[in-house]
Write a structure and sequence with these properties.
By secondary structure, the chain is an alpha+beta fold. It is 51% helix and 12% strand. A hairpin with a 2-residue loop joins strand 2 and strand 3. The protein binds fe (ii) ion (2 copies). The site of one fe (ii) ion (FE2) has 5 residues, from helix 11.
């Protein structure tokens, strides 16, 4: 019988120490997916990991393993792609990419870390992929488990100054766009986070990457008959509310633009205005962002300044031509002004809001109402939110655009949780294919033994019983997914 060691040697013979290290990490995470910590294969995997790490470190204190533009870097040195190790590198790249992991800093103490710690690290890496925000979850778990010898690094920021890198990332993005709107969403989220991070530390920042993301989204929205990006915004698969809100507002505003036939250029403008509309909040103290108690006068003053501050930041801190920036100023300035101009900041004129400003206001309020917030753990359901907005039609919102918006979303947008008259829970999975927008397609959810839910069949709520002519299923009411611990994105992605 061929021993395990011989098998391994045969599989990975001729690898350089760095390639061997990558192979050992990959083998470790794969083995811990299947076997328990006391299994021989896991024990061997941990030993191999420790040994190959020690070999690479060769007396150094720590290893910086990074990914940039589909290549691994060891201590800033690019690892050449050789055919012998191509499959290992591409598998591990994919593994890192799925978790938003840009790299790892591994301290030399890892070579002596207890077996349970190394296994725990691999298990956490594996499990992070199932979390809404894998990186934040992973960082939190490693800290909670006191695994101090390893630090995950978020995906590397593209070098704004490098046109080559930008072109590479754009090409990658184009390929991604064809594959997964979810990825486009995640990349956009990341680009806004990066912009905001620079602004928060009072630095100027380029926006070319964000502009490319918006162009990609606009193409997806205009070319794809299926409203996939819209689903990304209504399903709400992300925890990071502050930035996910900006991306959702951008997407919703762009779809409204598409619904009323605006040209691509204006749709892109709506996207950028959506992404940047709340930039004025970067100067808010952390406590205000997370405040659960009543707001005092000072808080209210800061809040009312944020839309004006957004325009100030766009002018002063975004590196782009004056002409391009000029097109992004008005809608963010107007987004809290309301249709009747009674909002903030107070203005002395009676000129109506711009079309893009009116669109942005609808997208902004809808996303804010339907997302869980610090001070309101449970989000308001989509139908309730739309009902509330309808009450303010003509005062806060442009009545015609609001109608367009409701028609576009359907009364029950994708990801809405419904209870049917038979008591079943169901998730809206496709918009209505009949004339009645209140009768979408839904995915039935069945309770499982662990207190969770499993996917059932997809049914059309506009289907009628041929003998009686009445609807087979009726919607009793919309429910809050968080009450049932349901994450709609998990069932619909
Ligand atoms: Fe705002
Ligand atoms: Fe907002």
């Amino acid at each position: 019988m061929i021993t395990q060691k011989k098998q391994k040697q045969a599989a990975y013979s001729g690898l350089t120490p760095k390639e061997q290290f990558l192979a050992d990490i990959y083998s470790l995470v794969r083995t811990t997916k299947v076997y328990q910590a006391n299994n021989k294969r896991v024990t061997a995997g941990v030993e191999n990991f420790r040994r190959s790490l020690a070999k690479i470190l060769d007396g150094q204190n720590s290893l910086f393993l990074m990914i940039e533009s589909t290549h691994f870097y060891f201590q800033d040195e690019k690892l050449l792609l050789r055919s012998q190790a191509e499959h290992i590198q591409s598998n591990l790249l994919k593994y890192f990419e799925q978790r938003g992991l840009g790299g790892l800093t591994i301290n030399a103490t890892a070579t002596e870390a207890p077996l349970t710690e190394v296994v725990n690290f691999a298990v956490l890496l594996n499990n992070s992929v199932r979390q809404a925000n894998p990186m934040e979850w992973l960082i939190g778990q490693l800290a909670a488990e006191n695994l101090l010898w390893v630090t995950p690094v978020k995906e590397v920021e593209e070098n704004e100054a490098s046109e080559v890198a930008l072109q590479e990332s754009t090409a990658k993005l184009e390929a991604t766009r064809k594959r997964a709107p979810r990825k486009v969403y995640a990349y956009t989220l990341k680009s806004v986070q990066e912009v905001a991070k620079k602004l928060a530390s009072n630095e100027n920042t380029g926006i070319r990457k964000t502009v490319r993301m918006v162009q990609t989204m606009a193409e997806e929205i205009l070319l794809n008959e299926q409203p996939m990006m819209l689903a990304m915004s209504t399903i709400k698969a992300y925890d990071d509310y502050t930035f996910a809100h900006s991306v959702n507002v951008a997407i919703l505003a762009m779809y409204i633009g598409k619904s009323i036939g605006l040209p691509k250029e204006t749709i892109e403008r709506l996207g950028l205005c959506g992404l940047f509309h709340d930039l004025g909040k970067v100067v808010w103290p952390h406590e205000l962002l997370n405040k659960t108690t009543a707001l005092d006068d000072h808080d209210l003053k800061l809040i009312r300044q944020h839309s004006l501050n957004s325009t100030r930041i766009i002018i002063l801190q975004l590196n782009s031509s004056i002409k391009k920036k000029g097109r992004l100023l008005l809608p963010p300035f107007e987004h809290h002004l309301k249709y009747d101009l009674s909002g903030y900041p107070q203005i002395g004129w009676k000129r109506p809001l711009s079309l893009c400003g009116r669109i942005l206001a609808i997208a902004d309020v809808y996303d804010a109402l339907t997302s869980p917030r610090v001070y309101r753990k449970e989000a308001i359901s989509a139908d309730l939110a739309l009902g509330m907005m309808l009450e303010q039609s003509g005062t806060v919102f442009d009545p015609i655009l609001l109608k367009v918006f409701i028609n576009m979303l359907g009364l029950y947008p994708l990801g809405t949780l419904l209870r049917l008259d038979g008591g079943e829970l169901a998730l809206v999975s496709q918009r209505s294919t009949s004339d009645d927008i209140s009768r979408p397609w839904v995915l039935l959810l069945h309770p499982d033994e662990d207190g969770g839910y499993t996917k059932g069949t997809e049914i059309n709520l506009s289907e009628k019983d041929p003998t009686t002519g009445s609807y087979i299923h009726m919607i009793e009411k919309s429910m809050n997914p968080t009450t049932f611990n349901i994450q709609p994105a998990e069932f619909l992605s």
